[in-house]
From TrEMBL:
Its main location: mitochondrion. This is Mitochondrial fission 1 protein. InterPro entries: Fis1, Fis1_cytosol, Fis1_TPR_C, Fis1_TPR_N, TPR-like_helical_dom_sf. One of its GO terms (cellular component) is mitochondrial outer membrane. The chain crosses the membrane at residues 128-151. It comes from Pristionchus fissidentatus. It holds the Pfam family Fis1_TPR_C. The C-terminus is required for mitochondrial localization, while the N-terminus is necessary for mitochondrial fission. It is a single-pass membrane protein.
Amino acid sequence: MLMDCDNVLDERIDPYELERLRDQYETQVRRGQPSHLAKFSFAHGLIKSTKDDVHQGIAILEQLLRENDRADIAMRDYIYYLAVGHARIKDYDRALAYIETLLHAEATNRQAITLREIIEKKMRNDGLLGAAILGGGGAILVGSLLALVFAGRK
């Protein structure tokens, strides 16, 4: 999914569209197991909604990432939107860990590079960039572990 990265953290979903995605997802849940596409579409919508919804979207994306048994475009999207979600709730260390994971696998991914720059700019604006560098060991570890998982599934 290609989108304008300059406003990816500020983009909001129309509430009616989110309800349509929620209905689609819940209908599939009632029938059994929702498709990966229905889960992703709903999670993507949640990421662009309220803070509480962002947390739910992150949980669904993390579940999709765990369930994914192959490296593909879907996994790239899961990781990218996990970074977006974490950045939206100002969990910048984790957002950067996901972006670094993606960049480890795809060093020239312009969308990921741009998102990293946006996150770092937000951290500087919030006075957190120095703190993240000093305390970034945990984020680097998380990123490294995710990179191993991501690389191992190729």
